[in-house]
Request: fold
Amino acid sequence: MANTMRWRYGDTSPVVLPTNTNYEVNIGDLLYLEVNHVRPSSAQADQATLIANQELFHDKFVGIAMQSSPAGNSDPVRVATRGVFEFDSPLSTHEVGELLGANEDGTGTQLEEQSVIGVATPNLAIGRCVKRVATASTRVLVDIVSTVVSGGPQAAA
Reply:
C-alpha cells in the first residue's frame, strides 16, 4: 500500500526501531515486533482464522509507521505507539469506545497493512474508536495504544 500519513492528532510517543530487510514498510502501516525488527501486519504468518490472526497481531502490536523503508533496507523507522489515526475500514458504523483490530484481506490469509475492523474483545484490539460514525463509512478514527510499548487493550482471551 502507498505511503499514507494517517496520524490526525495526539501525542504519538514515538520509538525508533529497525526494519527487517525482507519487508517494505510504508507510512501508515500497522506494525508488529518480531525478533527485534518491525514488520507490516501483512508479513505476519497466517494463523488460519481472522480471530487467531488478530490475537497474535495484538500481542506483538508495536504501533504505526511514521516513516517508510524500502525492502532491502534495515535502517530504523519512527513508530507511533500512541495517538489518533484515521484508518480504512469496511463500510460500517462505529461508536465511540468501540474496540478495533487489524482487518484481514479478501483471501483470508493475511492481515491488511492499513485497515481496521470492529472486534469483540480487548485481546483482539489495537485501539478504540474516538469519533462516532453514525452513517456507514469506510473511514474511522482510532486511538491506538501499542501492546508492546504501553500495554494496550489486552484482556485475557
Q: What stands out?
A: Helices lie at 50-60, 147-150. The chain has one domain: 7-150. The chain is about 10% helix and 45% strand.
